[in-house]
């Protein structure tokens, strides 16, 4: 059930919270359907607080945690949080199962950056952080790659795209497979004998090109001083297929290229679902936010101070 406080900006973008003067803007990208779960609200349910109460109403932690986190509030850090929505279904129906990574990235180029109601990444001095769970991390990497290519080709006609790229300061992944999924994982996700959407074919293509996309984004992040962190699950995941739980993403694949990586004692579904603000899977992101905001403030203050430096060797 969708919480009425989560604002729908468009079919592709929802807003968890919007302070008047945000210190940072964060966009969340969900994963794909892995088991038999309902995926109609995956852009919201991915980011729910983990609760032991089965009947507890859903709480979306990007909506509530940032405002009550004393670590953030003590530093006057206010967060604007949005979540991206796209079709993650592995089964094709009359209105689902039409996932296309290129079209997703193309769509978000317009719905996130060029949409006047969203305007993410266009505020001077306000850093942008992208957060992705599992396949969502691949979506956001493809988005950055595509936006960078458009900005390069279109020059002055893509000022908003360049502003977004200039303000992009952090990529945070929750168990994203930067390297190819193992064959046994792929077979468990898509066992033969069922009618699927184009998702298996897409993932096969991603598996083949995962190394290239990862290399491109790693180089881009280093060149543009974009910080990269990852939290990954260490527990096996029950896919609801009456087989033994399995490790979806290996540690080597999850932590590939990250400046810092943190092991989380959860399964693949719950690695991004903290219990409270003290949970390590939330704190990893919160600390990442603080580090980026403080780095940008220090840079801004340094630049401002440089304007008042006396001229060296100036004649009196």
From TrEMBL:
Q: Enumerate the subcellular locations listed in this protein's record, separating them with semicolons.
A: Endoplasmic reticulum; Membrane; Mitochondrion
Question: Highest taxon of the source?
Answer: Eukaryota
This protein's UniProt keywords: Endoplasmic reticulum, Membrane, Mitochondrion
Give the GO cellular component terms, alphabetically.
Answer: endoplasmic reticulum; membrane; mitochondrion
InterPro entries referenced in this protein's UniProt entry, alphabetically: AB_hydrolase_fold, SERAC1
Mainly localized where? endoplasmic reticulum
Name of the protein this chain belongs to: DUF676 domain-containing protein
């Amino acid at each position: 059930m969708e919480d009425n406080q989560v604002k729908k900006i468009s079919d592709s973008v929802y807003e968890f919270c919007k302070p008047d003067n945000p210190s940072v803007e964060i966009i969340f990208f969900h994963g794909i359907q892995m088991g038999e779960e309902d995926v109609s609200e995956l852009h919201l349910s991915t980011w729910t607080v983990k609760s032991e109460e089965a009947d507890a109403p859903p709480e979306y932690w990007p909506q509530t945690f940032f405002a009550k986190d004393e670590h953030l509030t003590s530093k006057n850090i206010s967060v604007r949080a949005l979540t991206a929505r796209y079709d993650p279904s592995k089964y094709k129906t009359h209105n689902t199962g039409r996932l296309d990574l290129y079209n997703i990235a193309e769509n978000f180029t317009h719905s996130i950056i060029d949409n006047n109601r969203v305007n993410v990444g266009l505020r001077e001095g306000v850093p942008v952080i992208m957060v992705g769970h599992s396949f969502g991390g691949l979506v956001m990497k493809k988005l950055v790659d595509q936006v960078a290519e458009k900005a390069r080709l279109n020059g002055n006609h893509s000022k908003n795209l360049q502003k977004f790229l200039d303000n992009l300061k952090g990529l945070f992944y929750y168990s994203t497979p930067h390297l190819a999924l193992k064959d046994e994982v792929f077979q468990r996700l898509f066992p033969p004998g069922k009618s699927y959407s184009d998702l298996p074919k897409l993932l096969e293509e991603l598996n083949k090109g995962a190394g290239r996309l990862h290399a491109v984004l790693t180089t881009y992040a280093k060149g543009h001083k974009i910080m990269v962190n990852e939290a990954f699950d260490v527990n096996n995941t029950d896919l609801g297929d009456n087989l033994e739980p399995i490790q979806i993403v290996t540690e080597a694949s999850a932590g590939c290229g990250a400046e810092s990586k943190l092991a989380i004692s959860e399964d693949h579904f719950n690695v991004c679902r903290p219990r409270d603000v003290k949970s390590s899977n939330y704190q990893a992101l919160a600390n990442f936010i603080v580090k980026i905001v403080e780095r940008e403030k220090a840079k801004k203050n340094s630049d401002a101070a440089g304007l008042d430096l006396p001229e060296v060797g100036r004649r009196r």
